[in-house]
Specification:
By secondary structure, the protein is an alpha/beta fold. The chain folds into 2 domains: about 240 residues, Aspartate Aminotransferase, domain 2; about 90 residues, Aspartate Aminotransferase, domain 1 (Alpha-Beta Complex), CATH 3.90.1150. Helix content is about 40%, strand content about 15%. It contains 15 helices and 14 strands. The strands form 3 sheets. It has a 7-stranded mixed beta sheet, with helices on both faces. Strands 1-2-3-13 form a 4-stranded mixed beta sheet. The chain has a 3-stranded antiparallel beta sheet with strand order 11-12-14. Helix 8 runs parallel beside helix 9 and helix 13 packs parallel to helix 15. It binds pyridoxal-5'-phosphate (PLP). The site of pyridoxal-5'-phosphate has 14 residues, from helix 5.
């Protein structure tokens, strides 16, 4: 089948909820994917910030292949060595004090779980979220997601959700002082979809203190930042503070669907049978992928690559951009014009990258395994794409 055949078939039978790249991918290896017509792309999009170790990392492929032949699935009604190992490895890599885990299947489920745990722990129901945040598409996560077009039809699901400007500690303080029913603050520490926006470390430290003073559970949505993408397992480690709950997904299984909530010991102590559950969460294939992913990150010391790659990309784009935002392998390139034509030109040149809520910002989510040569390749394609987009606009 050609790309065009596949596009026609998929569009005929899938409901049209997604805006897609006009290409059909059939293979991935390392930092590259290939489409149905044999064209190769350097993948700095990673299927929505998923492929932190590149495509089909060998240890993960091997672990999943072995597991699929042994036992594809059994639910949490029975114990499993592969789940036990994944839970231990994750708890060991988590920030100190977050030594318990709940496994689920996606980022939005991890956020739903965190919200439930916070409400149970505090006995309160109000949530504070940040303007610009994205937390997922299920109803609770949507009610805490800022973008009006996603949230508005479902905002009544969590009517006590208060939005405050990201980075404004006084606004958060004011909500705490005016409401005594706040269970949790949910925050995306680098707002990715919003355009790779973050705040100084002192903001997160002050947030920790405020939450402690008011008995509020602090939830970091690290669905994008987590698992070492920004240079530490949790970005909170680089801020010098620890949230009470951290949600993970995306990179955790190298593409095998999995989500997780890291849970502070004090919250875990109060959890009872029936508080949360999922059939597929903690399934064997996902757990094999999690352990192999985490082992590879540790064994190859890949987290140390994150700041290096950030610097290299900064050097590669140089003065062609207004600013380079973000941290580690979660990068925003701020252009002095619209990103869309540059993204199209990049794709034509064989590079996949992402747009964002800010029309001038390109998002790059390169794997931690990206080589120096691949960054040079990106740099050359970027310069060419920028030239092409600028000359097309001028014409
Ligand atoms: N939180 C953040 C920060 C995300 O970027 C996403 C997805 O893009 C989600 C939550 C939802 O994750 P999922 O699509 O796996 O449900």
């Amino acid at each position: 089948m050609t790309t065009q055949d596949i596009i026609r078939l998929e569009d005929t039978f899938q409901i049209p909820t997604y805006k897609k790249f006009p290409l059909a991918l059939v293979r991935g290896e390392g930092r590259f994917v290939w489409d149905a017509d044999g064209k190769r792309y350097l993948d700095f999009y990673g299927g929505h910030c998923v492929t932190l170790l590149g495509h089909c990392p060998q240890p993960v492929v091997k672990a999943v292949q072995e597991q699929v032949a042994n036992l594809i699935f059994y639910s949490n009604v029975a114990y499993s060595p592969v789940r036990a190992h994944a839970a231990r490895r994750l708890a060991e890599m988590a920030p100190k004090g977050l030594g318990h885990v709940f496994f689920c299947n996606s980022g939005t489920e991890a956020n739903e779980t965190a919200l439930k745990l916070a409400r149970k722990h505090t006995g309160k129901s109000g949530i504070v979220a940040m303007e610009g945040d994205f937390h997922g598409r299920t109803l609770g996560s949507l009610a805490t997601t800022w973008t009006q077009k996603y949230r508005a039809p479902y905002a009544d699901v969590l009517p006590e959700t208060h939005f405050v400007p990201f980075g404004d500690i006084d606004a958060l303080k004011a909500v705490f002082e005016q409401n005594d029913n706040i269970a949790a603050v949910l925050i995306e520490p680098i707002q990715s979809m919003a355009g790779i926006t973050t705040a100084p470390d002192t903001y997160f430290q002050a947030m920790r203190t405020l939450c402690d003073e008011h008995g509020v559970v602090l939830i970091f949505d690290e669905v994008q930042t987590g698992v070492g993408r920004t240079g530490t397992f949790s970005i909170a480690e680089s801020f010098g503070m620890t949230p009470d709950l951290i949600t993970l997904a995306k990179s955790l299984g190298s593409g095998v669907p999995v989500g997780a909530v890291l849970v502070a010991d004090a919250i875990a102590d109060g959890v009872e049978y029936g508080d949360q559950g999922t059939t597929f969460g903690g399934g064997m294939l996902a757990m094999a992928a999690v352990t192999a992913t985490l082992e590879m990150i540790q064994k190859e010391q890949l987290m140390a690559r994150a700041p290096v790659i950030f610097e290299q990309i900064m050097d590669a784009v140089g003065a062609q951009v207004q600013a380079v935002r973000g941290k580690g392998c979660l990068i925003g390139l701020e252009l002095d014009g619209p990103a869309a034509p540059v993204l199209t030109a990049l794709r034509e040149a064989g590079v996949l990258a992402g747009s964002s809520g800010e029309p001038n910002v390109i998002r790059l989510m390169p794997p931690l395994t990206t080589t120096d040569d691949e960054i040079m390749l990106f740099g050359n394609c970027f310069a060419e794409a920028l030239r092409q987009a600028t000359s097309e606009q001028a014409a």
